[in-house]
Amino acid sequence: MGAGELTMMHSWIIGYLYANREREIFQKDIEANFSIARSTATGILQLMEKKGYIRREPVAYDARLKRVMLTEKGEELQQNTMKAIRNLEQKMRSGISPDDMDTFFRVIRTIRSNVENCHKETDRRRD
């Protein structure tokens, strides 16, 4: 099964599990991190488990809890995704000097800050 069979949410969860693979992650952590309901998380995780991207294992200290972990297939998918992103970024930066990239990101940060300030001003006017 390829990445085309996954939704964006599946991909985000795989990325989250990969980034936190040294920690114990439970369904409630996924619910909180992605602001999704328990029933939604249950359905998503069941499908991901069925497709072989994750597994859920009980923990010794609490029989009610099941740790959510990537399978080898899930880890491989995430590694391939990260490699593809790095390759794309490299192609996009081709012919652009490091100084120009620094300038670009500085300008983007300034624009983001300006947008956030506009939102704050709008919120204050409403109050």
Automatic annotation (TrEMBL):
- Top-level taxon of the source organism: Bacteria
Read off the Pfam families from this record: MarR_2
Q: What would you give as a GO molecular function for this chain, any one?
A: DNA-binding transcription factor activity
HTH marR-type domain residues are 1-113
Q: Which InterPro entries match?
A: HTH_MarR-typ (IPR000835), WH-like_DNA-bd_sf (IPR036388), WH_DNA-bd_sf (IPR036390)
Which keywords does this Swiss-Prot/TrEMBL entry list?
DNA-binding, Transcription, Transcription regulation
Task: Identify this protein by name.
Answer: Winged helix-turn-helix transcriptional regulator
Q: Which species does this protein come from?
A: Candidatus Pullilachnospira stercoravium
